[in-house]
Amino acid sequence: MLTYTLKRLLMAVPTLLIVITISFFLMRVAPGGPFDGERQLPPEIEANLKAAYHLDEPLPQQYLRYMGNLLQGDFGPSFKYKDFSVTELIAQGFPVSLEIGGLAILLALLIGLPLGTIAALRRNTMIDYTVMGTALAGIAVPNFVIAPILALVFGVLLAWLPAGGWNGGALPNLVLPVIALSIQQIAYIARMMRASMIEVLGSHYIRTARAKGLSERQVIWRHAIRPALLPVTSYLGPAIAGIITGSVVIEQIFGIPGIGRYFVQAALNRDYTLVMGTVVFYGALIVLMNLLVDLLYSVLDPQIRYDD
Amino acid sequence: MTTESTSYSGHNVSGDAPVAGESLGRDAWRRLKQNKAAMVSLILLILISAVCVVGPYLLPWGLAEVDWNAFSAAPSLESNHFLGTDANGRDLLTRTLYGGRVSLSVALVATFVSLVIGVLYGAISGYVGGRLDSLMMRFVDIMYSLPFMFLVILLMVVFGRNIFLIYAAIGAVEWLDMARIVRGQTLALKQREFIEAAHALGVRDRKIVTRHLIPNAIGPVIIYVTLTVPKVILLESFLSFLGLGVQEPLTSWGVLISEGTDMMQSAPWLLLVPSLFLAVTLFCLNFLGDGLRDALDPKTR
User: Rounded distance, CA B210 to CA B198, Å?
Assistant: First the structure.
């Protein structure tokens, strides 16, 4: 297990290197720069600014400098948010994104797994059709459609909940973004859980369990749930990645001060360091999450052993 | 299967036959016809595409034409703005249909791009095998773990909002699964007798891949394509929603939804109409994809 973990961590290094390199050079070949404002800066000032941020050096040298700083955990200063380093901005925004994303994943599992299980147990009944029809709708309607409609209905028309804003993470402000972010994942998880549950219920050892007279509840809780969870576990990696990218839109719609919102703004502003910082940070996060999911998988499935 | 593959090559030599095997295709079509949800979806999809292509010619308004008498007008039958107008007095129905053209064209072209890259990559990797195969698949693994969404967003920001770039960027993202599927198929197929026979007859590798391997791997590929199309539409609307999609005066469903979101309190139809079009299209594509999977999957026979 340990060797496997180390090996996977080592494999993450080239992945992250590619991410960093691609985004670094993409950002730099983009027309326009961070100091193109409404007003043209006097050339001397612009030259001074560029020198201060080392933007006057040749590209390869800038690249090496960036990599060097990165190795020391320094993402550099933000060009647009003066007086803030990128590290500070990420440190500010991430807890907010994490709170919403974490709650969304949790909600998706808490609702998706039971729904899928129930649909599988009541296969080809009205319950099954209702759950699966709703799930398909949840997949077909993207979160950037669901979010404004939720805000319109519950925030504006009914006025039960705030239609946007963060308010320091107060509970009423959390509800709509978390729901909007999790609906699609609930749908995917429910569908997957239903399919794998049906497959497990058809297997021989379940028949054996029933034959030896176990109650239906025992059959399901003791024997069926764990193997049925496996495919869902392997979906958690993509689910987390989906929630992370989804948060980019959700944070924008609800005006939530997380990292997702920074990213698009920063890319449009040519805030090189902030864009790079977000991409690298999210890249590392996704790689790490995938690793965790794979390890979790091996815990759940005794057939899989990573130590060779 | 062997007879089927000989019929492929036979057809291809004469050069006038469809690529898909007829028996397989006819069988799948028969099974698909029995699936009501899939058929309704197929008809709806054809209808939506037809309306998007033909509709703008029949409507009295142009894509960017401003009606100075109707800003943010509500839907009404009397004013000829059947679904209302946006904040700039442009007819919503007209714009939604034009937007549909863009969204659907992105879906088709980007899926095609991903199809070509994925099928070639997977077939070569699986057929050549050995060191090249593991190298190529390792590359795919690495690509998988990249935060692609962010790179696509960067790409759009960097090279400007150009529809051809959208085609290419989305296509370049979506080919990975396709490559894996085709590689798996190829690995299984290349052990088969008819490939050996082709070798023995002295058919060149390139021809074996294009004439024998790819056509025989087409079933799972079709299934995957129908699943890719809604993903691509979603990705395009996502980019457009963030303001990184097509540029004014051109529009797409994602752009319209984004504009509608800003106006939803005063003019909710601006949000609801394009959302409905997008949702129905995605819904139908998903149904059709499920139906095709059932129809083409040999395991369910």
Answer: 12
